[in-house]
Amino acid sequence: MKYVVFLGDGMADVPSSALGGKTPLELADKPNIDALCEHGIIGLAKTIDDSLSPGSDVANLSVLGYDPTVYYTGRSPLEALSIGVALSDNDVTFRANLVTVSDESDYAEKTMVDYSSGEITTEEAGELIAYLKEHMSFPHIELHAGISYRHLLVWDGGSTNVSLTPPHDISDKKVTEYLPKGDGAETLLAIMKKSHELLSDHPINKARIARGLNPANSLWIWGEGRKPQLDSFREKYGLSGSMISAVDLLKGIGKGTGMNVVEVPGATGNIDTNFDGKAEAAINELKKGQEFIYIHVEAPDECGHHGDAEGKIESIGLIDKKIVGPVVSYLKESGEDFRILVTPDHPTPLAIKTHSRAEVPFVIYDSGAKEGLGLSYTEANAKQTGIYLDKGYQLMQYLLNGEI
Questions:
Q1: Last residue of some domain: 201, 225, 249?
Q2: How many CB atoms lie within 10 A of CB 329?
Q3: How many structural domains comprise the chain?
């Protein structure tokens, strides 16, 4: 038996008047997912526990069958695993976004213009992070470059007793109420202010502005956490697993659980990602004998954060056409039994441009099942079945065993 998860990050939504009362899932051209749904089971799952923030870290742990109330120690430590930063028990990690803030002289009066600095390239970001490391020094604190706008800060002896806000939660808002609070807040704010001072006139940002792009003119610190302790996926489920994703968070989860993390050339985490390459990578892993494949696609989430309805609809269609279609065709041709899970990790509604803790619609398809519910894949259809998992980590048991 083979198992494949198609995870469309943030692709669930709510009906929008701008879309004629529809959701992106209802408008997307997704014949392959709809076919799985018509012959499978569709329902709702609560992937975000009420005690936790609605992040992709919590939600993807949940989908993978790891109860976040047990395993979650923060987002940034998982990203540290991905980029190979060894952590001690005394380290506290933070996510450090390269963001675009407005031009007010008082940092507290600035507005969060763009949480991703216009999806800055990894090459440009690498130069900016190297420049900050050379010209900015704070005791016991180290900065590490990641991918695009996503970077890492490690504080030896830092504290998690802080209140920090993800920048994508405050798009177009003044940062006044969202500056760091708690232990070490003064230091974290000083880092943000110093980074703005250093980056504002950097040649890379001047060139970006000249090209009509948003400059990466500040770090924004959030996502505190400590060294994670994740059980082996193979020991937990008895399966060899592979993780396919463009983003450090999912690669970190993959590494932390002992899965094979597959690097896909041209995978970006945006709508310009290498969709074909992800499908090819999944098929190659199946051919090598891997039993469980987790294919994560970030594009719908990024479009949701930007309020880009057209892009979100298109990205769902591309996942269907370029990833789900080829992988399902290969599985059918292989002659081996298989089960598939299609799900978001969380909704990223266009109206609010950030994550929601609402339930997500899931589909489970079993190649050996003789009949399904005959429904297409939409949020409304998932709700009407009455199938509901109040603990997201039950999805994995449902996928593997066909029952809760």
A1: 225
A2: 13
A3: 2
Give pLDDT tens digits along the chain (404 positions). Answer: 999 999 999 999 999 999 999 999 999 999 999 999 999 999 999 999 999 999 999 999 999 999 999 999 998 999 999 999 999 999 999 999 999 999 999 999 999 999 999 999 999 999 999 999 999 999 999 999 998 999 999 999 999 999 999 999 999 999 999 999 999 999 999 999 999 999 999 999 999 999 999 999 999 999 999 998 899 999 999 999 999 999 999 999 999 999 999 999 999 888 999 999 999 999 999 999 999 999 999 999 999 999 999 999 999 999 999 999 999 999 999 999 999 999 999 999 999 999 999 999 999 999 999 889 999 999 999 999 999 999 999 999 999 998 76
SS3 205: helix
369 and 338 within one domain? yes
Query: 391 and 333, same structural domain?
Result: yes
Among 72, 129, 76, smallest CA distance to 98 is for: 129
**Which tokens is 339 given?**
């089960």
Contact between 402 and 366 (Cβ < 8 Å): yes
Same domain? For 256 and 357 the reply is yes
Question: In this structure, are residues 135 and 232 in contact, taking their beta carbons and an 8 Å threshold?
Answer: no
Same domain, 216 and 247: no
Contacts of 76 (CB under 8 A, 6+ apart): 93, 94, 95, 152, 153, 223, 224, 225
Distance (Å, rounded) from C-alpha 277 to C-alpha 283?
10
Judge whether 85 lies within some domain.
no
- Is the Cβ–Cβ distance between 221 and 192 less than 8 Å? yes
Does one domain contain both 315 and 388? yes
How many C-beta atoms surround the C-beta of residue 135 within 10 A?
12
Q: Read off the CATH number of the domain in which 322 is found.
A: 3.40.720.10
Taking 3-state DSSP, the helix, strand and coil percentages for the chain, each rounded to the nearest 5, stand at 40, 20, 40
Question: For the chain, what is the total number of helices (H) and then of strands (E)?
Answer: 16, 15
